[in-house]
Amino acid sequence: MVGGHGVDLLRWEQRMKAIMLSEPRQIGVVDLPDEQPGPGEVTLRIESCSVCGSDLEGFHGIHPKMTFPRVMGHEVGSVVKAVGDGVGLSVGDRVAGTGRKACRSCEPCRNGRPAECANPGGPGFTAHGAYAESMTVIATELVPIPENLSFDEAAVAQPAAIAYHAVVGRAAIKEGETVLIQGCGPIGLSAMMLAKLQGARVISTDIVDYRVQKARELGAELALNSSKEDVFAPIRDMTSGQGVDKVIECVGADQDETIPQAVEAVRSSGLVVVVGSFASNRATVPIIDFKFSEKSLIGSQGMPEGYGPIFELMSFGKLDVNRLISHRIPLDQAPHALSLMDRKDEDVLKVVLKPQT
């Protein structure tokens, strides 16, 4: 018996393993129903899900969009396991992204039209995500993975695409510019590599030694531990006293430190782009310098350019996100992954969960 265009109801696995964050700092393995896809939906077999810094914020209960209880996870490489009616994808297709999650309670959902859901959730934040063996979502935002890229690369392409929007879409970095990238996590390191591809000279900063060293290995002209070293003297030396042309803030959390540092480091009429996410809706800006020097401060959110530009760079060997992956571990070790990230143990950068192992 087959339902939709690819749902074998007689062989359907009714349960799946997932990692549930029941409340802040309370996380563990659970057994959940494995939903069948309705019209416009697909069920994904999760092959790779990378752990994001926002997952760590959710774990601690400080992410502004996270609701509980929650299966986290939104950086994903998957295989289409089943499809509902009206879906252009086929069983076996390799895809990146999470799509959106139907609420199952609005009028369209109750009447068998989940793809028209009036209140779709964001997987991993306001709906259950990819810390699981499978996930059923609305199919419209899923993107085919290029044949020469792995599931791990497809998962890590998501934070790289966030960096792409900041570097190319918002900062519009040009050849010959000098750029300060604050933060040497996966997004900051991606931003550094992308700025280099744009022809910029890059200074990277962080407060963790091994991450500063990683920035050096990946090509930063200068990498500094801002908690131990003077940042401003080297910047003045590199820029003939003018300051950097642009700053991309990829830290978050410490806005009373990074934002003032960014404004001081950038030249007159320069630009600061904020990518990092903050627990508190406030920041300290050195307003006199900011105003009299006509500096600009703008935000950068998400990946509106989609996966296309970043997949092209990866497929042609111009951007290697494998160098950002430090750990690959089974799904049930997700609590350990979050602990590693929290403590910055084992030189952790990007952890990829492997639900099928």
Overall description:
The chain folds into two domains: 2-144 and 320-354, Medium-chain alcohol dehydrogenases, catalytic domain (Quinone Oxidoreductase, Chain A, domain 1, Alpha-Beta Complex), CATH 3.90.180; 160-299, Rossmann fold, CATH 3.40.50.720. The chain is an alpha/beta fold and 357 residues long. It is built from ten helices and 17 strands. Helix 3 (151-170) crosses helix 4 and helix 3 (151-170) packs across helix 9 (308-315).
CATH uppermost class of the largest domain:
Alpha Beta
Distance between the termini: 29 Å
Q: What is the count of DSSP helices, taking H or I runs of 4+ residues?
A: 10
Which geometry do the CA atoms define?
A: elongated
Which helices and strands, and how do they pair?
Blueprint: E1 2-3, E2 7-8, E3 15-23, E4 26-33, E5 41-50, H1 53-59, E6 75-83, E7 94-96, H2 107-110, E8 134-138, E9 143-144, H3 151-170, E10 178-182, H4 186-197, E11 201-206, H5 209-217, E12 222-225, H6 232-238, E13 244-249, H7 255-265, E14 266-274, H8 287-292, E15 296-299, H9 308-315, E16 325-330, H10 334-343, E17 350-354
Parallel strand pairs: 10-11, 10-13, 11-12, 13-14, 14-15, 16-17
Antiparallel strand pairs: 1-2, 3-4, 5-6, 5-8, 5-17, 6-7, 7-9
Helix pairs in contact: 3-4, 3-9
